[in-house]
Amino acid sequence: MKTDNLFTNVHLNPAEGFHVRPFSGENTTLLHIQLEAGKIAPRHNHIHEQLTLVVSGELEYELEGEVQVLTAGQVVFVPSNAFHSAKALTDTVVIEAFSPARTDLQEKLAALEGK
């Protein structure tokens, strides 16, 4: 059985104010992300389908030119290759799911942990 603790174990820090902990199965990756207020995830796209659930805080989310402020409990679906960005309006925690799995993040985590 493969298990992890997304809340307490070491997180990746891809940029200042971003704390990311991935966990992957064969076809899906789940991320626990903590964003400090004011931090921005720049506009980008990727092959993965993505679900983003706001656990706490407020997140200004842009998807293909449409902007909406998401609050705790709200979720957004990002289709494969859709351009999107986000800005944390407050300290924010999100859970994101990706399919196919984000092997790039798992490799970075393994290197960080010396596995």
Structure, briefly:
10% of the residues lie in helices and 49% in strands. It is mostly beta strands.
Description of the molecule:
The protein has 115 residues and is mainly beta. The chain has a domain of 79 residues: Jelly Rolls, CATH 2.60.120. It has one helix and nine strands; from the N terminus they run βββββββββα. It has a five-stranded antiparallel β-sheet. Strand 5 and strand 6 form a beta hairpin.
The CATH class of the domain at 27-105 is identified as Mainly Beta
- Number of helices, counting only DSSP H or I runs of 4 residues or more: 1
Shape: globular
Mean pLDDT: 92
String of helices and strands? EEEEEEEEEH
Main beta-sheet annotation: 5 strands, antiparallel
The amount of helix comes to: under 10%
Output the structural class. mainly beta
Question: Could you give the order of strands across the largest sheet?
Answer: 1-2-9-4-7
Euclidean distance between termini CA atoms: 18 Å
Could you tell me the number of beta strands?
9
